[in-house]
Design brief:
Length: 104
């Protein structure tokens, strides 16, 4: 019985991961003439990866309070209102290096 349950859960998890990767494609099919170009899709994927890296930069230390990470997290929200995620990532990487270098 446990084996059947695990197989069922595994099947659902695999299906949902495949289904999620085609979410944009499904929406674009419904609105064909308004879909993004290949370059725009590539740019959006780049910005998404930058958002993931920004989150990784923000939460480097999970075991204890890190004031520098808290500052980066706070600044990233306000900067994302003005700049693209990749521009914010570059700015905060430089700031992080400078602040951590100065504190050593």
């Amino acid at each position: 019985m446990k084996m059947i349950t695990y197989l069922l859960l595994g099947t659902v998890a695999c299906y949902s991961s495949f289904a999620m990767s085609d979410m944009y494609k499904d929406v674009a099919k419904n609105h064909g003439r308004f879909g993004l170009s290949t370059n725009e899709i590539g740019s959006a994927k780049l910005q998404g990866e930058c958002l993931v890296q920004l989150k990784n930069l923000t939460f480097k230390r999970k075991d204890k309070f890190d004031p520098i990470s808290e500052w980066i997290n706070y600044r990233s929200v306000s900067l994302l209102e003005q700049y693209s995620p990749c521009e914010v990532l570059i700015m905060l990487e430089v700031a992080n290096e400078k602040i951590r270098g100065a504190s050593k």
